[in-house]
Write a structure and sequence with these properties.
outer membrane lipoprotein receptor (LolB), chain A, 12-stranded mixed sheet, 12 strands
């Protein structure tokens, strides 16, 4: 056998071996998806500070069921265990700061701001803000100290779908379902970073979909206390921090007295 023939035969054999190693049964796909999610979670959990840009395209369902799309961009910085901030381009132009004690929200569109007491860790704050203040961030599960545990609940089903090329690089495509949402995630094969996240909100009218594309990931950004210190522009009106259990119109108020210890778990987690 010539050298060239041997190389071709070897390449063909390796290709068949790689294809044969791909999961075929539902159980194999579930196991492979679980492994990938755990690797991704371990990568994020091992980083104290990180930042990224989230490009979100969300469907909005009108009274007649007609769907429109809204695009916003959020620039996010995280410091575990007690720092978080993001700035939004589009929508209400929201900026949020969390410093381990309070959360401050500013809307440049409305020229209003609000502040409320929060639990002392990012995990607890995300739970509390979702349950009490209806904070909706499609990528919030990735900020927890264990993204895997935040994403996967006992009633979650699904697993590995296949390999897709995004911007010239291979990504594992995973798909999952639970009673509240269906979600898909694309995880890079090289470094187990998250490239895309797609969520279908099954309990909302019209089952709207949000697609998030992640950009500018930095696993070692420079942060200090000023990064998470609120900066409220002069002339903005202070309002009450909205709550899920209140239909009161916004009014000017002092800091809300939150009770984190009594906070219920957020729906769907």
């Amino acid at each position: 056998m010539s050298t060239r023939t041997f190389v071709v035969a070897l390449a063909a054999a390796l290709g068949m071996a790689c294809r044969g190693s791909e999961p075929r049964t539902a159980e194999e796909k579930k196991a492979k998806g679980d492994q990938i999610l755990r690797e991704m979670s371990s990568t994020l959990a091992g980083v104290k500070n990180f930042s990224f840009t989230a490009e979100e395209v969300s469907e909005k369902v009108g009274p007649g069921g007609q769907k429109t799309q809204e695009k916003i961009v959020r620039r996010v910085v995280v410091r575990r265990p007690d720092g978080f901030t993001f700035r939004t381009e589009g929508g209400l132009g929201l900026t949020v700061w969390y410093d381990g004690k309070k959360a401050t929200i500013v809307s440049d569109e409305k020229k209003r701001w609000a502040r409320g007491s929060m639990p002392p860790t990012l995990d607890e704050m995300l739970d509390y803000a979702a349950a009490v203040h209806d904070l909706k961030l499609p990528w919030a599960d990735l900020l927890y100290s264990s993204p895997y545990e935040a994403l996967v609940s006992p009633d979650t089903t699904g697993g590995w779908v296949g390999v897709e090329t995004i911007e010239g690089k291979p990504h594992d495509h995973l798909s999952y379902q639970n009673p509240v949402v269906d979600w898909e995630i694309w995880v890079g094969r090289e470094r187990r970073g998250v490239e895309r996240l797609k969520i279908t909100y099954k309990l909302d009218p019209g089952q709207p979909v949000t697609l998030v594309t992640f950009k500018d990931e930095n696993l070692a950004p420079t942060v200090d206390e000023n990064t998470f210190t609120a900066q409220v522009p002069d002339g903005y009106t202070r309002i009450r921090l909205a709550r899920r259990d209140s239909d009161l119109a916004p009014v000017e108020t002092a800091d809300e007295a939150a009770s984190p210890a009594a906070s219920p778990a957020p729906p769907g987690r």
